[in-house]
Write a structure and sequence with these properties.
The complex is a heterotrimer of chains A (about 475), B (about 500) and C (about 100).
Chain A (H helix, E strand, L loop, with lengths): L5 E3 L2 E14 L38 H13 L7 E2 L2 E4 L9 E4 L9 E6 L8 E13 L3 E3 L6 E5 L6 E7 L6 H18 L11 E10 L9 E6 L2 H20 L7 E6 L4 E7 L9 E2 L6 E2 L2 H9 L5 H10 L4 H8 L2 H12 L4 H19 L10 H12 L5 H14 L3 H7 L8 H14 L1 H8 L5 H12 L6 H12 L1
Parallel strand pairs in A: 12-13
Antiparallel strand pairs in A: 1-2, 2-10, 2-11, 3-16, 4-5, 4-15, 6-7, 7-10, 8-9, 11-12, 13-14
Chain B lengths: L8 H10 L4 H14 L6 E4 L1 H14 L12 E5 L26 H8 L3 E6 L39 H8 L5 E6 L5 H7 L2 E4 L19 E6 L2 H11 L29 E5 L9 H16 L3 E5 L4 H19 L18 H12 L2 H14 L5 H24 L2 E5 L14 H5 L6 H6 L3 E8 L5 E8 L4 H15 L10
Parallel strand pairs in B: 2-3, 7-8, 7-9
Antiparallel strand pairs in B: 1-3, 4-6, 5-6, 5-10, 9-11, 10-11
Helix pairs in contact in B: 2-3, 5-6, 7-15, 9-11, 9-12
Chain C lengths: L4 H10 L6 H18 L34 H5 L5 E2 L2 E5 L4
Antiparallel strand pairs in C: 1-2
Classes of the chains: A alpha+beta (about 475), B alpha/beta (about 500), C mainly alpha (about 100).
Bound molecules: magnesium ion (MG) and zinc ion.
Magnesium ion (MG) binds next to loops of chain A.
């Protein structure tokens, strides 16, 4: 595929992108307290005295959050550190009750791993491997509301203390498209593993976007970090704009300052939040309220055994069944669709036909109805029956489309629909022959022309016959019989 | 002063159970003593109704149901402990009017054992101090006076100064204290009472306002060793809410008390022999050695090579942890808030400036500095490495001996306002801090009076989890020292 | 290492402690006195010595993933200097 570059007055510039993704861990209770994590509760109703940093309150680590982070690390073939520990990241802010965030700087739970992405679903060779530097576990902060009061900001601590995984990539991406592919793939993996619901609207996944530019072959340029970008589209937009901005600055003889920026989706621009001068000095040190975290082999084994089949493995399996790479990647992109498709396969349906039908007919219909796969009016078992009727020649492909439409509206099974509406296809040569004879007799002139060499008329005879049979005739048989009578 | 307030907890317990006097009589006597002792400034809050209510319950329970270990015993509680619905301000302006909606694990255990609360005890602000002069409520005055006829106000030591003064003056039969770098042992020594800091993790830190998390430990202060054993048994125990709490059963320390030290080797660390300390102290130390020999123990010289580095190590680690632990006092969720400032950062800075006293600010500044960019390895990590060496010193020492005997403090109590240089003040804990850094159990027992007529303490350090050994050695000294001196009542 | 008024002001800013010039001036010698004394640790050879990680050697315990806390808004807000409509209220933050 063509390499992305920014055209500048002084030539082409290469964009270098690294992402720090904050993914909310799926757990009932918070990382260090027994308060609930559900989204959208009344303000400060999911806050324990620990989350509110009352004097003398202490953290106790939630096993499930560690299990989920370890499983995630295993899913990206990362090194799991059996010895890790938590550090305090000290800074003052209204959404941070303790005055520090419990995080992991010096000894993260998960070390180096990697994620391979397919930049072009139709092109098997467009794979790119993006390095993961680390995954560490940390507390989320509370939420500030600025628009409720003229002179006050309101603080809701419901999110305070919810477990996050910070997934830090290497600066391996070179275009908005690569970053987009990486984010979609990461999201898919997290959702397959079940360690994060990947819901970007609810903030379950946010990305800090590190962007720098350089002339090809040069050293890495100075990067800026744009914080908390909450959609794939926005991340791609940020990279595009930030890269463009940096090139303009550099070509005007300016220099890039290492700084934290904010993205404004409405104006579609990034602006300075904090420059390096007043950057925080976080004064990290090991949290003395906690001991080092040491993981047992049995725990790690259980984590590994609990991992489901992951997107890449599934895709390869589908391809082994003769499914095209394109369909395979489309079918594995979303875990629910993949599960739906697997159930369909378990019913013994021929994989290629199933893949074609699901990615065109089913996905098309769901798109039209604006329904998700979980809301599909047609179940995998019902679909299996429909495809079986086509396979054994009971109905034609065109009839199948009609039947499927009826299934979508009525929720009825294909067999019943075919029975009740008499849509069964006939291969009864007697019936077909008599219709053909009538048609040939009624169109003696055309028969003449055909025999004189106007072979294109064959289609006309087929059409007439099918029409006369109300579309229920088996097309192959009609062809055979016509040839027998005409040639 | 009613003679009830002169009794030990053990005596009050027996008398109450035998029906010689009621729990209400005990509570009444101490409530009176507390009210009459305000000149000492030992209590920041008085809760006579609480003490009385618990006494009523104890009197009703007596003879019928099984009595709690501390039924009928009223106690004073250091203000560092969160007590539900009762002001818990850690001796600081910044926690003004803070009424916790929760009860610390340790005080909850004491209540569950039947103890009532006489009130909250004055202390150095956030437990940072060795003279109680940093309290927002003003200094506690020791009941003790010098014998030179001067009427100079003497410090009870700190940070558990209110606790120490209350026991010494009979304003409580026993109290809770906390010890981060000597805050139970030094005031106990200064006021002629007994106090023990257990092994780190024996007492839950949940609900105790944090100063330096890796050092903070709660412990009892009382009139004698037996009372300390009784109280510690009720205070200690595993708490799943504290990740550093030790998941071990609580030994029956009182039942295990024995002053027979046959077969015990007592280490005498040569590095603690400092010529600059007053003779009285080294003389008492030598007496202590003889008393333990007399109890059957064998004194041997040991070496703790890194002793001199303990205090500087402590003054990096404790302020560093404190600077982070005290970040939560920001005027948002509780306590003081300075209003009328525009921005959030101004509100933080103004509130913390108005809420913290000079010593707390000083330690926050040191702690912030040693953790700041570029200094972490040079200061904090270096200190944690030295701390490892200090722990190794003790580990090696306990291969040769069972217990260690030293003086508790390098001087007797000094006059209020006499020590103004922070560094000189820090040196008060030179003998107490090494055991704190190593998380070891240690106690101070009164040994005698110095030339000025002020109490001096002896300091026993035990191996991890060997509170029993420490208590037994303390008992042996107590029996031989025959320390009966009491401050003359002037308040 | 020794601190000057500029450093003290910077540290005070980090620690969110408002200080008058007089306080800053007074702190410079105090802190330098203490830091100078602390720095005697430089004498100690700590090559190959690990920083202490646990005072008493024990393993970190993990809690089960059960919701057994929270839903105590009144207790959480009870001591707040500023609480409105179930929120903590602070001087407006401009991002
Ligand atoms: Mg980040
Ligand atoms: Zn983060």
């Amino acid at each position: 595929m063509s390499t992305y570059s920014i055209k500048g007055a002084t030539g082409d510039w290469e964009v270098v992108v690294g992402l720090e993704v904050h993914a909310q861990v799926v757990s009932k209770a918070k990382l260090f307290s027994g308060a609930a994590t559900e989204f959208g509760a009344e303000p400060n109703t999911q806050v324990s005295l620990v989350d509110a940093a009352m004097p003398g309150m202490l953290p106790v680590l939630n096993r499930e959050c560690i299990r989920q982070a370890v499983r995630t690390g295993m899913a990206i073939d990362a090194k799991i550190n059996k010895w890790s520990r938590f550090d305090r990241k000290n800074y003052f802010y209204a959404d941070l009750p303790q005055g520090y965030q419990i995080s992991q700087l010096y000894h993260p739970l998960v070390g180096e791993g990697e994620i391979t992405v397919l930049l072009d679903e139709k092109d098997e060779d467009s794979v790119k491997t993006i390095g993961i530097e680390r995954i560490h576990v940390e507390q989320d902060a509370g939420k500030l509301m600025h628009d409720q009061h003229p002179t006050m900001s309101y603080v809701d601590l419901n999110r305070s203390g919810v477990a996050l995984m910070e997934i830090v990539s290497r600066p391996d991406m070179r275009s908005p498209a690569e970053a987009g592919a990486y984010l979609r793939k990461l999201r898919a993996i997290l959702r397959y593993v079940g360690s994060c619901d990947g819901n970007m609207e609810e903030g379950s996944m946010r990305a800090d976007v590190n962007v720098s530019v350089r002339k090809p072959g040069d050293e890495l340029g100075t990067r800026t970090e744009t914080k908390n970008v909450n959609s794939v589209r926005f991340v791609m937009a940020v990279i595009e704009h930030e890269a463009r901005r940096q090139v303009d600055v550099l070509e005007d003889g300016g220099t890039i300052v290492q700084e934290t920026r904010l993205y404004d989706p409405d104006k579609n621009v990034t602006r300075t939040l904090r420059s390096k001068e007043d950057a925080h000095d976080y004064r990290y040190f090991p949290d003395p309220d906690l001991l080092p975290l040491e993981l047992e082999d049995a725990f790690l084994e259980a984590c590994r055994e609990s991992l489901p089949e992951l997107p890449d493995a599934k895709r390869k399996r589908y391809e082994r069944h003769g499914i095209t790479p394109y369909h395979a990647s489309v079918l594995t992109a979303e875990v629910e669709a993949a599960r739906w498709f697997d159930t369909l396969l378990e019913s013994g349906t021929e994989p290629k036909a199933a893949a074609n039908w699901v990615s065109s007919e089913l996905f098309g219909a769901l798109n039209r109805l604006g329904k998700s796969i979980e809301e599909s009016p047609v179940s995998p078992t019902q679909a299996a029956e429909l495809l079986k009727l086509v396979a054994d020649g009971t109905i034609s492909g065109s009839l199948a489309k009609q039947v499927f439409e009826i299934m979508l509206e009525s929720g009825q099974d294909a067999g019943r629909i075919v029975e009740e509406r008499g849509l069964k296809q006939t291969s009864d040569t007697g019936a077909i022959d008599s219709e053909i004879d009538k048609i040939l007799a009624a169109n003696a002139d055309k028969v003449e022309q055909y025999k004189a060499g106007k072979v294109a008329l064959f289609g006309f005879f087929v059409g007439q016959t099918m029409k006369a049979m109300q579309g229920k005739a088996n097309p192959q048989v009609v062809n055979e019989r016509l040839r027998a009578k005409l040639d | 002063m009613s003679e009830l307030t002169l009794k030990t907890i053990a005596q009050l317990r027996e008398g109450f159970r035998a029906g010689e006097f009621t729990a209400q009589e005990i509570a009444g006597a101490f409530n009176e003593a507390v009210a009459a002792g305000r000149a000492l400034n030992a209590y920041t809050v008085e809760t006579p109704a609480d003490a009385l209510a618990c006494a009523v319950a104890a009197d009703e329970a007596r003879g019928s149901v099984e009595l709690g270990a501390l039924a009928g015993i009223p106690l004073g509680i250091k203000d560092l402990f969160a007590t539900k619905g009762v002001d818990s301000t850690s001796g600081s302006r910044i926690l003004k009017d803070f009424k916790p909606p929760y009860e610390s694990t340790v005080t909850a255990k004491l209540r569950a054992a039947g103890a009532g609360m006489l009130g909250k005890l004055n202390m150095d602000e956030f437990a940072m101090g060795s003279s109680n002069e940093t309290s927002a409520y003003g200094p506690v005055i020791s009941p003790w006076k010098r014998n030179d006829g001067s009427n100079a106000a003497i410090t009870p030591g700190g940070s558990s100064g209110g606790s120490a003064a209350a026991v010494a003056a009979g304003l409580a039969p026993g109290v809770t204290g906390t010890d981060t770098g000597g805050s139970i042992r030094q005031p106990a020594a200064f006021t002629g009472i007994t106090g023990i800091k257990p092994t780190y993790g024996r007492c839950s830190r949940w609900g105790i306002v944090a100063f330096a998390s890796s050092l903070d430990q709660a412990g009892p202060m009382a009139r004698d060793v037996r009372d300390c054993a009784i109280l510690l048994e009720a205070m200690a125990g595993f708490d799943p809410k504290d990740s550093t709490s030790l998941d071990l059963p609580v030994p029956q320390w009182e039942a295990g008390l024995s002053s027979d030290l046959k077969g015990k080797r007592v280490g005498i660390p040569k590095e603690y022999r400092i010529d600059t300390v007053p003779d009285d102290i080294n003389v008492l130390w030598d007496k202590g050695i003889e008393w333990l020999r007399d109890a059957g123990a064998e004194p041997i010289e040991i070496s703790l090579p890194h002793t001199q580095y303990a205090l500087p190590t402590y003054y990096i680690i404790a302020p560093a942890e404190a600077s982070s632990n005290l970040a939560r006092y920001d005027g948002v969720r509780y306590g003081l808030r300075v209003e009328g400032v525009k921005t959030l950062d101004d509100m933080y800075a103004a509130t913390r400036a108005a809420g913290f006293g000079a010593e707390v600010k000083r330690r926050i500044m040191i702690g912030t500095y040693v953790l700041s960019a570029g200094f972490y390895d040079a200061y904090f990590n270096k200190a944690q490495r030295v701390r490892t060496l200090i722990k190794q010193d003790f580990r090696k020492a306990f291969e040769q001996c069972d217990l260690i005997l030293t003086p508790t403090a390098p001087s007797a109590a000094f006059g209020i306002g006499e020590t103004t240089d922070p560094l000189a003040m820090y040196l008060n804990d030179v003998f107490a801090v090494p055991a704190s850094l190593a998380g070891l159990p240690a106690m101070s027992v009164p040994g005698g009076l110095d030339k000025q007529g002020l109490p001096l303490g002896l300091h026993i350090i035990g191996n991890e989890l060997d509170e029993q050994g420490v208590l037994n050695a303390g008992l042996a000294i107590e029996e031989r020292a025959g320390f009966t001196a009491r401050p003359e009542k002037w308040w | 290492m020794s601190v000057d008024t500029k450093t003290v002001r910077h540290i005070a800013k980090l620690a969110r402690l408002q200080m008058t010039d007089a306080e800053v001036e007074a702190l410079v010698p105090e802190l330098n006195n203490i830091l100078g004394w602390i720095e005697q640790l430089g004498e100690v050879n700590t090559d190959g010595v690990e920083p202490l990680t646990a005072v008493i050697d024990q393993k970190l315990r993990l809690r089960d993933d059960v919701v057994n806390d929270g839903d105590v808004r009144d207790a959480v807000l009870a001591n707040a200097p500023g609480a409105e409509h179930g929120f903590f209220a602070v001087p407006k933050v401009i991002e």
